[in-house]
Amino acid sequence: xxxxxxxxxxxxxxxxxxxxxxxxxxxxxxxxxxxxxxxxxxxxxxxxxxxxxxxxxxxxxxxxxxxxxxxxxxxxxxxxxxxxxxxxxxxxxxxxxxxxxxxxxxxxxxxx
Length: 112
Hints:
Shape: rod-shaped
Largest sheet: none
Low-confidence stretches: none
Strand content: under 5%
């Protein structure tokens, strides 16, 4: 008969753990749907040891890179692309940035 309190306590802890997992999964789904730097940073602050930390860090880096690429493209200058390359030398847009820098250099008239 003394096992009953231990079993009840164990079941209670198990249900609390499952509820916590469900909350994190729900929060992660919202973060992915929002797909912003701020949402990923908030997730990482709330769940520093969470189940989706690696994915959140990877997506955060990608979203930041995409934003930096948009800024560089908007300036459409060699300086803008070079600034992008300093931050993301191996990023998915790095080769395109190098090509655009080269195209601007080729289109510029030679110094007389």
